[in-house]
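Model the whole thing, not chain by chain.
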Amino acid sequence: MSSLEKVSRRQSLLSHVFLWAACLVALFPVSRIITISLRPGNRLLSSDMSLIPDDASLESYIKILTEKPFLQWLYNSLLITVTTSMIGVCLAATAAYAFSRFKFPGRKSGLLFLMTTQMIPGAMLLLPIYLVLTKMGLNNTYTGLVVAYSVTTLPFSIWILKGYFDTVPKSLEEAARIDGCTEFGAFYRILLPLSKPSLAIVFLFNFTQAWNEYLVASTILQDSRLRTWPLGLYELQGNFNSEWGLFAAGSVLISVPVILLFLYSSKYMISGLTLGGVKG
Amino acid sequence: MTSLSLLPAVLEILRLLLFVAIAVAGLVAFLWANYKAWKSEYYLGGAFLLSAALGAELNLVFGFALTPAVLLGSVLFICALVFRYMIRGRWMVPFLFAAPATVGVALLFLYPLVFEIYLSFHRLNLETLGDWIRTGSIEFTGLENFIQVLQVGSETKESFWLVTARTFAWTGINLVFHVFFGLVLALFLNQKIRWVGAYRTILMLPWAIPQLIAVLAWRGEFHSAYGYVNHLIQIVNEVFSFGVGDARVAPLEWIGFKPQEWWTNPQALFASICIVNIWLGIPFMMMVSLSGLQSISKSYYEAASLDGATAWQRFRHITVPLIKPVMVPSMILGMIWTFNNVNVVYLMTAQRGGSEGADILVSDLYKQAFVYNRYSFSAAYAIVIFSILLVLTVVWMRSSRMTEDPGRG
Amino acid sequence: MFNPKNNFNFGSEPTSSGPSSASGGNKPKIIFAAVALGVAALIGLQVFTSKNKDQKNAGETTGSSSETVELTLWDQEESENTKVMDDWITRFTTANPDIRVVRQTYPNEDLRTKFTTAATAGQAADLVWGPNDIAGVFTTAKLIQSVETFVDVAKFTPVATEAVTLKGQVMGVPTTYGNHLMLFFNKNLVTDAPSTTAELIAAARKNTDAKNNRFGLVFFQNEPFWLVPFVGAFGGWPLRVDADGSSHLELNSEAMKNALSYVYNLKTVEKIIPKECDYDCAKGLFLEGKAAFTINGDWSVREYQAKLGDKLGIAPLPILSETGKAMTPMVSGRYVFLNAQLSEQKKAAVKKFVSYLTSREIQIEVAERLNRIPSTSEAMNDPKIVSLKSIQPLIAAAASGRPMPAQTEMRAAWDAMRPVQQKIMSGDLSADAGVNIMQQSALEKLASLKK
């Protein structure tokens, strides 16, 4: 943050006012979820507009933890998400290395294809992906979901990592190669440690994608023991008798770990978000 | 009833990791072996034997039908031919590095693409579904599905062109607001003031909160009687109103700023979806802009200040050109994501009692495929949507010179 | 095109190091290694997939000593009801140790989507426990089969089977009857149930104070399901089924027009309902004691009772004063649908299971524990049911109802009615013009299902 200008008093005041207002807007729905989660019963809508309802209670929180397999959902999601992120980062990093450091036939068209995969409407992929995974015997398994997630996030991950790798000077790896390092060694020992911020971003991106995904999960999973939290929370909305209190309480509990992860990785966020061109 | 089952999951994940490791190792070893052996005089013969063995194994042991078994077996042999006559030992390292991701992407992107193209020229819908499952064959219909997609609508059915126009409006509005607010916030955050870290953290919340949760919470706020939005509008109107005799006049109401029936009025619904999606998307652009701003060296500004440049001039002539390389790819990605954003629109409209007047292309597509089971129609629809987006992106990338031929460099 | 001269980096042909030059001499060895590796990979693949299969088939028909048949059952019930269903299943499998029943719940529309998607890969459930409107869609897609060879359909009440009869075939096993709308009232606000709409409006007006968020009547006013009772009272019905089994949409009827104007007037002229109110809003207002009357289905009885206790009144929908006819809610129920592709072994198990679900014992529990109307004549005449106080108001409310059509036409009708009804309710469209759009749109949707 050294490259920042000194700020005049008036400008500073203005900034604070503006940022405060922006923060209020950002926080507004969050506060409402908390309000609903504190209401006893299952009222989503109430004419009561106060932030903390008069009859506030932790009933919904206790209910969701004791009466619903909430911890199981959370556990499933966490397991799937972490595995997805790990595999996704590994596969994306090696591919991005190839795209960033080497010239080979199909490089440019490969990069363009990765870009075009982002344009395929998600609904279009759902049925064929389901059919492929079922043919592989991965229907109704964590494995199927992890495979689907880690591959569908690959294109974006590769782009981010390639963009970052392009900014790391090649000379370091070349020096290592001269010292007798293998290609993989140069990649693993030199480039990866230097690219931590972007690896963190890609991990985070994979994490949020897998953590929040609903459609693919609902198509692939059947067994209620395997369900992830979005499926579980969606289920709470029930047919007509939505359990909104439980839904909101679950939402609060689920948002906490993701928010913490974001807080932790926000220091990488600024330096890691680099998207290069195809040119590279 | 809420007892946890922890162990089976861990075991499955371990097996999965093992599987992925073996698959990646197998793939790399396979390519490596080919690279080592392609010059050998026994190479093609060995490859032929192996591919025959694979075909036989698939057919006899795994019970594949003969045609797919032969096809899969010959893939191996075709690989060998490619290694022998086209690759000839070159590009070993990049190919080994890129292979695992390529296979994954081909399996879960390329195959679906081919499958959908196949579907779009055939007839698979509710009526033919059962027969297709049993027999595996469906009627070939040529371009019929595409003609259906592009048909002009009637009084009762929204035309494809109207939905397309709305989608463009949706994408444009969202992108403009995302970039504008993202950049403004980034400029504020890129100053030496107190609590910048805290502000940044809070402003990232809309990104961090799971979308399903955020959207459903917002939807509740747009309820005409019990949501906070109308409540706020009323308060604002009261503040900005004045009395004329007994009546109170609120000038803001004249320009349409008044409580709306957000859920039922299609225009209001569309506006509410835009507001929600703008709220959701600002943090990403903010962080991208911030990373762009922080990469600009301070010396440019110092030099400009010495020359007596105003703040606007500095922004216009230093900031904008220097963050453009970071912003343009993100904006293109942002455009694609907004264009393809089915989640927000679907959750805001299609839940009980949703309105059709606010659908964009992809949410309409989702409904056609999974609510009405029009698989072939929606395959054609998806291909049309994909083509629109492809053209849009290519035009933008060309005009911003993101792709330059590396050969010319 | 790619130019090999640009191959300046390490890792390309000329610079590839050590191993390649060392291995130059013994190529046969490498071939051997490659073949061995390939074989090893194939064996590994085989072991892996067979392992997977073992795990999946554990407990399924393996033809071994126990010969257990596994039936999968998918439903969309709420958690309280699924607990009861699990109890029934446990009792059934204890009595029939050779049968396993695995039950899964899917929320809302997911059940239908999930079943059709899973069917494309042959992974769909053997049994589906769901509402009757599934029947039309699944029958059109040939995903379910007639139940007449599995159970004696004569044992059910005729109204229960009528809601799943398609082209003369009963396509689902009725397990419960009902799912119909009725009138609920808060005894703190009103003392008696009105028998006509004129009485209802009068009582509702007294309890309306829109400024303070109090309303006489609340219901899901933009949803066609809530409109249909009014249509019936005006002498119409969305679908006409002829004697030959062919069905015809009748959305542009005079009755539909009248019903739409009537509900619109409740909002704009009588002003006894809120400007905008969906399901959750209606429920919320009623439970908070801010609404005197509400129209809702039999599924909400338990929740309302838990909140309001003996202050909850339940009555049939009133008689429409304008025509003198009773309002006619749609009645259906829950049915068990059978996958079109059941093996012989499973068919026998399914037979046992559905006859268990429709036995006297379970049917009485349907009323006692699920608070729904039983589907068999035997149970309906049982003294236990006749004297069961909690179920009698539901039976009374169902008396004026009509079976909900299961034809695919109905699906098109719902989807066509919803947006138009919304526009009419928000005042953007007149009822006269609206009904024609409904009809045309429904016909188009119906045609498009076949394209």
